Amino acid sequence: MQQLTNKVFVAKASELPDKLGKTVQFRGMELAIFKLAGGKVKAIENRCPHKGGVLAEGMVSGEHVFCPMHDWKINISDGKVQAPDHGCVQTYQVEVEDDNIFVMLPDGQ
Ligand code: FES
Q: Measured from the CA of 52, which atom of ligand 1 is nearest?
């Protein structure tokens, strides 16, 4: 079955800080948007699976963000928590058109 998506504008690429996250709220959801070194933009759920740390406030290193609360290391591309901890966060597909960043959210969200 084809899953419908909503394409939602979330931010201007030029307004995103380098290697830091930005919190975006949309219909009760909270996303963390990151611009990685090299300019790739990624979107993940803004809630650490450990105890709910705000991931957009974490330090970014390469493809990972370190949760600001207890330093869990989470891959921003696939959402997986790195060993020795485990878990994962939801990731979202991102499209960048000129300076505009859109996130593809499942229909109904
Ligand atoms: S809440 Fe993120 S590491 Fe504890």
A: 1
